[in-house]
């Protein structure tokens, strides 16, 4: 494998950008030019001057004057000519160089076609004329394996007439000779440029450096990671580290047949030489691609282009089994790396953000390298750092969960002080994750259990889900409410895939992941009596592992704590027990359940609090009574509330006599 670019050039910026190791050239393989090329106008002058020398060989004119002009130009023009780059990059002999130049002559200078017609009988050069006219002629320059035809620089107008067929130069080569930077038309339509990161942490910089080393040693390489944007940034950094411009191709856009794919890969190599381009291929759309993973891997093993294939981990990522190419893992940015990346990006744009805010955002949001740059730009436009971070990830959870925008605050939550202290500690665990894990060294001790997982246990209606909403609101995070009916699947492995998608989305998006009625998923493992038991235990085992590696905030709620597998409780950061509300708590709940804007008569809330209802039951009764009031004059009365309480009690099979008793005082009804 040849060098993918100039060995000493560095394009990635920042203190931890990967250095490009020295990359040896393989004999005869193409490589991007090391020297800078001359400006476009000077390019044309150099090419035309050299073309005049070759024209003199055809017409028999004295070539000394054009030789002197070319020598003078080379002394004044800095950098190599486009023809020099082609010769060096593709390993052309002197004869092949002059053949290519004369084949392009009619496009470069109008008189060339007339001169060829007058002296050879054809308006275009043919191989026969080149062999008989140009010095240093050698027959093997005409073969398919020789550079001129192998790289598609020229083609035979008549494939059946090797010696007499006019040679038609490729348009891309003609443009390059006159200094026009026009990417191959087909590749330009199929690909798009990729911005290289301005900064990479050492962990990712090391991976980028390894990509360059692999290019030199074995050719194309696969980058595999959980964050596509970060994986793409590492690949782009590897390209710029050796002076190449990264461009992204979709695997679905590659050729359908092996022969067409080989031709396409040759064009990739050719553009690497002509335009100093390296190629990133996104494998994640291979599900709809016309080329197989195995076929693509086999074709790439002989490809001299600097190619990086990108694949995501998780259910949505492409399978890379059978590719036969080296695979490098690209990890997520750790909390410390996210913090340093944010500091670096904010410094570059001149944004001043308190260190405590940066640490909190780095601990809560699993930003990619690309996200960090966008966040910094939004901060300069006046957006708060936390809000800018929250706007970025927005992962798609499909129909597996409902993403809720929480609105309830601490004042809306009625709980004893010990439980409130535990909930506030969960908030603190998210806000100060960077400080505790990185600054105080806890992350260095283990990579497990660095997230926060809490169990909310208590009877139905005691505020477990509501408390999760309060926490999400306090942290200014979205609440991902898992829909178990969509997650659990009867087919082997499907439940795990869907859970993986949810956990990944919550990590990427900085969301609070809520599993209501968690005992349905996190139940106790049972003795294996049949295949159903085995599969159920596999699901529980997967959940144990994923919960332990989860880096975000997960909340599990249950009405039956004893039904949970004991292994789960050992992996929980906190277990908060939600008590059934006493009368004092119910009085507070009743006062909060009735909005200020609600028209009402004289209400006896202490009397209402005598009814044995949970917080959820009180909220439901208040809403039902409001509908009764809207249908009965527009004013809420004790009569309507009493009816609603009676109906709410009846839901649980309790007697209506448990409702508040009628009051004999004036203005109040039971």
Automatic annotation (TrEMBL):
GO molecular function: ATP binding; ATP hydrolysis activity
Transmembrane segments: none
Region of interest: Disordered: 1-40
Pfam family, one: WHD
Compositionally biased residues, Low complexity: 23-40
Residue span, AAA+ ATPase domain: 450-582
Ranges of compositional bias, category Gly residues: 1-11
Nucleotide-binding recorded as keyword: yes
Similarity field: Belongs to the AAA ATPase family.
Protein's UniProt name: ATPase family protein associated with various cellular activities (AAA)
Species this chain originates from: Humibacillus xanthopallidus
């Amino acid at each position: 494998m040849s060098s993918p670019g100039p060995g000493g050039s560095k394009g990635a910026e920042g203190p931890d950008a990967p250095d490009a190791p020295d990359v040896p050239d393989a004999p005869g393989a193409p490589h991007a030019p090391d020297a800078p090329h001359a400006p476009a106008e000077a390019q044309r002058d150099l090419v035309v001057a050299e073309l005049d020398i070759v024209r003199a060989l055809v017409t028999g004119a004295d070539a000394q004057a054009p030789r002197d002009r070319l020598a003078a130009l080379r002394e004044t023009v800095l950098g190599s000519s486009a023809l020099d780059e082609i010769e060096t990059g593709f390993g052309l002999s002197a004869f092949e160089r002059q053949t290519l130049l004369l084949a392009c002559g009619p496009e470069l200078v109008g008189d060339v076609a007339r001169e060829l017609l007058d002296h050879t009988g054809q308006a275009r050069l043919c191989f026969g004329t080149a062999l008989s006219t140009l010095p240093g002629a050698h027959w093997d320059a005409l073969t398919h394996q020789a550079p001129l035809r192998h790289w598609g620089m020229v083609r035979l107008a008549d494939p059946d007439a090797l010696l007499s067929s006019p040679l038609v130069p490729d348009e891309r080569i003609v443009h390059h000779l006159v200094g026009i930077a026009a990417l191959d038309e087909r590749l330009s339509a199929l690909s798009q440029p990729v911005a290289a990161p301005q900064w990479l942490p050492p962990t990712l910089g090391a991976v980028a450096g390894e990509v360059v080393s692999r290019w030199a040693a074995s050719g194309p390489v696969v980058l595999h990671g959980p964050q596509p944007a970060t994986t793409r940034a590492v690949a782009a950094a590897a390209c710029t580290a050796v002076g190449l411009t990264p461009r992204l191709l979709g695997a679905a856009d590659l050729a359908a047949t092996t022969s067409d794919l080989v031709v396409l890969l040759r064009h990739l190599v050719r553009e690497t030489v002509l335009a100093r381009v390296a190629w990133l291929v996104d494998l994640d759309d291979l599900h709809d691609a016309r080329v197989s993973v195995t076929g693509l891997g086999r074709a790439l093993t002989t490809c001299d282009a600097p190619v990086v294939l990108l694949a995501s981990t998780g259910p949505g990522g492409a399978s890379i089994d059978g590719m036969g190419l080296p695979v490098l893992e690209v990890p997520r940015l750790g909390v410390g790396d996210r913090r340093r990346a944010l500091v670096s990006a904010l410094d570059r744009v001149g944004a001043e953000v308190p260190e405590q805010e940066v640490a909190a955002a780095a601990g809560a949001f699993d930003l990619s390298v690309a996200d960090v740059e966008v966040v910094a730009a939004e901060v300069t436009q006046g957006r708060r750092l936390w809000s800018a971070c929250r706007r970025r990830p927005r992962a798609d959870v499909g129909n597996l969960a409902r993403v809720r925008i929480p609105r309830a605050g601490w004042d809306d939550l009625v709980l004893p002080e010990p439980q409130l202290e535990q909930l506030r500690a969960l908030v603190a665990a998210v806000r100060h994750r960077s400080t505790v894990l990185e600054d105080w060294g806890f992350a260095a001790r283990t990579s497990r259990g660095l997230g926060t997982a809490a169990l909310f246990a208590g009877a139905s209606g005691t505020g477990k889900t509501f408390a999760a909403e309060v926490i999400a609101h306090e942290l200014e995070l979205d609440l991902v409410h898992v829909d178990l009916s969509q997650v659990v699947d009867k087919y082997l492995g499907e439940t795990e895939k869907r859970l993986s998608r949810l956990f990944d989305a919550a990590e990427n998006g900085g969301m609070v992941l809520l599993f209501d009625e968690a005992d349905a998923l996190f139940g106790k493992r049972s003795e294996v009596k049949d295949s159903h038991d085995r599969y159920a235990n596999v699901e529980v085992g997967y959940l144990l592992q994923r919960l332990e590696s989860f880096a975000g905030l997960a909340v599990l709620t249950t009405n039956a704590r004893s039904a949970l597998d004991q292994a789960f409780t050992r992996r929980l950061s906190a277990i908060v027990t939600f008590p059934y509300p006493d009368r004092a708590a119910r009085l507070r709940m009743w006062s909060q359940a009735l909005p200020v804007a609600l028209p009402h008569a004289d209400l006896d809330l202490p009397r209402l609090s005598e009814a044995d209802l949970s917080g959820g039951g009180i909220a439901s009764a208040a809403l039902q009574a409001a509908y009764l009031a809207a249908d009965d004059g527009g004013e809420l009365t004790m009569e309507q509330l009493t009816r609603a309480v009676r109906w709410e009690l009846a839901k649980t099979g309790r007697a209506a006599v448990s409702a508040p008793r009628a009051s004999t005082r004036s203005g109040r009804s039971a």
